[in-house]
Amino acid sequence: MSYTFDRIAPGSLVLVTGATGLIGSSAVITLLDRGYKVRAATRSVKKQRPFQQHLEDRYGKDVVEFVEFTDYLDPASWDAILKKALTRTFLAAAARAPQVKSVVFTSSRIAVYAPEFGKDLNLTVNNWADYFVDQARVVKENDPIAPVLVYAASKIRGERVAWDFIKEHMPHFAFNVVLPDCVAGPAANPTPGVYSTHTWLNDLFLGDANGYAVGFMKPAARFVDVRDTASIHVAALLEKQLDGQRLWAAAHKFTVDDILAAWREAFPGREILPDFKFEGQPDINIDDEQSTALLKAFKGEDWFSLKETVVANVQSVL
Ligand SMILES: *[C@@H]1O[C@H](CO)[C@@H](O)[C@H](O)[C@H]1NC(C)=O
């Protein structure tokens, strides 16, 4: 299959929601590098001034515009219901806008599966982790697993709502979904938020053995560089042959100890945490042939390696 990435002409305007987050900010860069104009939606334009300045310095003032979504994402009320309403509202607005050619929705691997120690999995993009929705419904509020279940359920419901809308309304635009696994790598936004795997990984590098990173990678499954995740989004946006697809962004199998080993190799003089040696690392296999072909055609190279990713991740805290 030969890809041409010409669904949308360069110079056209692309709206990026969550444009200041880890994946969103990298998507903004990828789009600007390809000659698109970007309307970056964020909660607070004022807080994002450093990112805006950075983009204006690099690409010029006329190619990037920041807009505020006022009642968008109050983190405290960012629950399944809001997400459901937001997804529908957004897609309904897009369906009324004839100029919208293509929409890419960021889901999560947690909408497909969650890794467990000792449980190997062979997965396809047709798998859904719907059991989380049932579990989230009955979990006790003070159960430590509750936030994870609610997050998972909100991701699943959010993506289900999107597909239901597409099936029901058959809008004029192409619609594709990206399923990122554990995302790491450099933050395109010079003031990245605290709640991202990028910052968690920096904490791990700086010696925090009890931070979010380890909890999140217990067990680890697959990781992907944020730049590749952005490439998959933009490739899906631009490639005419893609419509109605779920696409993996989940490059390589890994464990938390692989990350520590990569840092030890790259920074020989530096003290790195000892290995965690978790037992029962699951073997997670996925049908990522389409994503890999898409990525190679889009950027002309394979996925970033784990070492490239985790070394690039920590550049800001060296
Ligand atoms: C996954 O697929 C491989 C190759 O077909 C097979 O050997 C393995 O048993 C499968 N694993 C699971 C957990 O189904």
From TrEMBL:
Residues 14-240 form the NAD-dependent epimerase/dehydratase domain. The chain crosses the membrane at residues 12-32. Coiled coil: none annotated. Keywords: Membrane, Oxidoreductase, Transmembrane, Transmembrane helix. GO terms for molecular function: oxidoreductase activity, acting on the CH-OH group of donors, NAD or NADP as acceptor. InterPro entries: Epimerase_deHydtase (IPR001509), NAD(P)-bd_dom_sf (IPR036291), NAD(P)_dehydrat-like (IPR050425). It comes from the Eukaryota. Belongs to the NAD(P)-dependent epimerase/dehydratase family. Dihydroflavonol-4-reductase subfamily. PANTHER family: ALDEHYDE REDUCTASE II (AFU_ORTHOLOGUE AFUA_1G11360) (PTHR10366:SF562), NAD DEPENDENT EPIMERASE/DEHYDRATASE (PTHR10366). This is NAD-dependent epimerase/dehydratase domain-containing protein.
